[in-house]
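Pilot study result, target chain (268 residues):
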Amino acid sequence: MNIIEDIQASVLKLLVNSLGQLSDGIMLASKEGFTSGKMLDYIYNNKPNGRFLIGKMIDKIYLNHRGWQDIRKRKENLLLSLNEAVNYTLESKNNARICDVASGPARYIIESLVNFKDKDVTAELRDIDERWLDEARQKAQQEGVKVDCKVANALREEDFNFEKTPDIFVASGFYDWFNDKDIVEKSMRYIYNALPNQGYFVFSIQAGHYILGPVNKVFKDFNNHQLKMVVWDKNVIDSILSKTGFKTIAIKSDELGHYPVYLAKKGC
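Predicted structure:
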């Protein structure tokens, strides 16, 4: 057993369950889950709030943690990479179709659609949980963009049938939950086979974390289960991409490389 990690987790849990509950962000993480859509929206908005002055101060410290700064950078890089994939697609045809295989509330997909309101760019959002699709529909309606939604399993081959073939697939944060090379390879192969030649794949991985062990022990996920986030060796991901047939076009990341965002292509 890792004694230091256990001590860190115990201290973190004590702080989270006491003074931490005065912080709106920490309270939201405890209530909704550390990786829930509502939690990530709060992190992206980056506006400290809490009960009393001390709660707001704690929330500011929480939101300014380097880990959350890196998550905000990941979102920025996802949006940049997705926009690049759309622009590349529009150079060769008059329209572009995006599909997120495990979209959650799909905030960055919707933001990208807003950026291309004057173009023929559409998106299909897929997730195993109808809750996130409902949230995405509401957000898309608020932003004045249209999305198609479908309940589907991103790890089941029979769920990779499409009425409109996507030009771009997206998988953000999806591989942070699978500590199994075969599962990741299977996912990427399904995406590769479903893409047309010259199609694009935008995805992220977690390649590092400041205190992964204690965070996993203290917080819950969006289903109220104990967190089980994993980190991936970038070399392993590169080998899976190569074996599958993808060619990496670009990688964008935070300063320490904790959250690389890949832009890959089929048939370079």
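One observation from the pilot: The mean pLDDT is 87. A full batch analysis is planned for the follow-on phase.
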